[in-house]
Amino acid sequence: MPGPLSGIRVLELGQLIAAPFAARLMAEFGAEVIKVEPPGEGDPLRKWRKMHEGTSLWWYLQSRNKKSIAVNLKSPDGLDVVKQLAKSADVVIENFRPGGLEKLGLGWDVLSALNPNLVMVRISGYGQTGPYRDRPGFGAIGEAMGGIRYTTGSPEAPPARVGVSIGDTLASLHGVMGALMALLRVKMGQGAGQVVDVSLVESVFNVMESLVPEYDLLGEVRTRTGGALPGITPSNTYPTKDGGYVVIAGNSDPIFRRLMTMIGRADLAEDPAFRSNDGRSRQAAMLDGVIGDWSAARTVEEALQALDAADVPAGRIYSVADIVADPHYQAREMILSADLPGGQQVKMPGIVPKLSETPGAVRWQGPALGEHTDSVLGDLGLDAEGIARLREKGAVA
């Protein structure tokens, strides 16, 4: 079944995380993604983290459904190949430092002149404008300057990071969202292509809720609160007697009353002072202590059974082993089996979101470097002799 983006061609000029993840999401839903890699080593992600026979397992996930073409962007003939691909592309996704593509002769002015309907997604640390535009920016810096690190971790410890590259991922999601909005405008005949300018810092900042108005109006500087969600009570992580933890979200008014009744504190359930969130938040520490005393007398499983029976949102903190074994993940096809080179089978994450009529699909795992060079160049009209000449010139590999 063709995906909803079938017929859309995406040219990926990115490396590592942000731009490639955005292109991967589009590839999963049917877009033809042509990934341009430098000859030799290719995208550095091929060698990051845990490996299988010399190639990163992350690579196989990050680049699934993509075509790899090895092009030397320092060669005039290689640059001409990219220009020819851009002519027939709907979207270009890149994460060079601002000005990087311009130095190569592949800037927006050049590519949009070749293809006025082209949409260019540009992901960078600080955006294409502003006083910081020329600074190098990685996801970690975006997380720091976007505000999320200041609010993450224990108040007694230095600011912590989330255990994944959340800044890059958020930028990728904003990039896809912007690309689809810009594409819709083109496909509906409402206008030509445009630049989608995505900043790592701003992508993180965009999910920081009411941080700014709370500071501006009330002087509130939100900081680290451990497992609690500040100003939303009770919502925290509570210990159990078997050394585990349960996350309990009892912060809506009726759920709070059910929670208090279930743990034997009907007095708190009926107390007018705790009827709404603002009253509960004024005594968050006391309520957390009450709930923590209850959970500490039970195992994780005992606590979750009681909370589920009372219809209170709660859950254990999952490791990857818990995720892979969980029947709900399996029922939702969120754990897929994939074949690696050599026939080795491995579990991979499934596809999000779930579309009822045109679902996403995994057609192949991350390709070998330059695996599709000949077929892509053939689509441009080059015959075997022409491709061989480009190889002789060092334009492609």
From TrEMBL:
InterPro entries: CoA-transferase_III_domain (IPR050483), CoA-Trfase_fam_III (IPR003673), CoA-Trfase_III_dom3_sf (IPR044855), CoA-Trfase_III_dom_1_sf (IPR023606)
Organism: Methylobacterium gregans
Protein name: Succinyl-CoA--L-malate CoA-transferase beta subunit
One example GO MF annotation: CoA-transferase activity
PANTHER family per record: SUCCINATE--HYDROXYMETHYLGLUTARATE COA-TRANSFERASE (PTHR48207)
Pfam families: CoA_transf_3 (PF02515)
Keyword annotations: Transferase
Keyword Translocase: no
Source lineage: Bacteria, Pseudomonadati, Pseudomonadota, Alphaproteobacteria, Hyphomicrobiales
